Amino acid sequence: MSTHCCAASSPPPRVGRPRAPRRGGPRDSPRVSLTVHLDGFAATLPLPTLRMPLVKNNDHPVWRNDAMKTTRFRNARRPRALAATATLAALSGPTHAQSTLTLYGVTDAGVQYLSHADGRHDAWRLQNYGILPSQIGVKGDEDLGGGWHALFKLEQGVNLNDGAASTPGYAFFRGAYVGVGGPAGAVTLGRQFSTLFDKTLFYDPLWYASYSGQGVLVPLSANFVDHSIKFQSATFAGFDVEALAATAGIAGNARAGRVLELGGQFTSNGLSASVVLHRSHGAVDGGVDRAAQRRDLGTVAARYTFASLPLTVYAGVERLTGDLDPARTIVWGGARYQTSGRFGFAGGIYRTDSPTPQIGHPTLFIASATCSLSKRTVAYLNLGYAKNSGRSSQTVYEYDPTPLAGASQFGAMLGMYHVF
């Protein structure tokens, strides 16, 4: 939401005995209005008119405001317009400069049953985040004219179980950046989502859900990138490109924490395809220098939405190599279906193959159903089964502890979320 004020040229009519205007202009304040912008809509509200003194009482002028009680201003022989009026008028900017400021958030929680929750025992628990990560944030956008605009975002994750930050130690774990956009695209600087996340998320049939392939496809350390510069192009003939570069900024060690990413996407009618290349180097942590180690990752994915029915199918493959993580190949597929009413369904299968015994060959099966209770409130049911063998320990809920090596896991979560 944003506000700005504008002043009309004509003063309000005088009330009471007329007085000569002061040198330099009339004593009366101009009419002032307040314009409020919210989600693309604008409303102009007139502010109460301030009038000249009506009476004099013991040399204390009394001012009268149409919408307020009479207020005395003592020790003022020549009353001036209220400072607030002048301030509001001064804040009035050029007519082309429109700004928006949005406070937003998500609250999501549910009850979860999980087998082998600690590796051996089952558990019932209240669980934060089932479909959308619980969060609160503020973002802004200012029109700079000529097709250019400035933007920023500050976003924090919230754990509804105890009200704490989802990740301690961060004021804005889920993003803190500023940038500028123009006809060709936008450049942002700060802590932000990786290109790998941006160009993979909506090719996963479960999208943001905690029961999804995101914990498999995107290493948690690659979700967000600190000290990063990102460019997201506009879409030209169905193509768009995204690139990201980051470094830890350690003097004499430029490779430490370096991240380089390039992603591209093509969309035509109901078909979309995405390609992402990611390379990241280890950081210096606790005096241990892992800058020589790296993670190389490539992803190719596609989705197709049918014109005749609300069904989208998904498929993709990812290959990860390097020293930071065990090598693996992941293949996935699934679908989303949205009925004409309030119900939606999604399902996905994610198969991992790795020569490393601790990773092994697990398969993750996910099914999810949603029911819209209103435009902003949704109830859901998530079901998941992780089939493990050997020493593999794939989880159902992406942030839960891993089960006992070789033990399969079943999970079910019934919950709701509200978006504001």
Automatic annotation (TrEMBL):
Pfam families: Porin_4 (PF13609). GO terms for biological process: monoatomic ion transport. It comes from the Bacteria. It is a multi-pass membrane protein. Keywords: Cell outer membrane, Ion transport, Membrane, Porin, Signal, Transmembrane, Transmembrane beta strand, Transport. One of its GO terms (molecular function) is porin activity. Residues 84-390 form the Porin domain. It is found in: Cell outer membrane. CDD domains: gram_neg_porins (cd00342). Its main location: membrane. GO terms for cellular component: cell outer membrane; pore complex. Gene3D superfamilies: Porin (2.40.160.10). Residues 1-32 are annotated as: Disordered. PANTHER family: MAJOR OUTER MEMBRANE PROTEIN P.IA (PTHR34501:SF9), PROTEIN YDDL-RELATED (PTHR34501). Homotrimer. This is Porin.
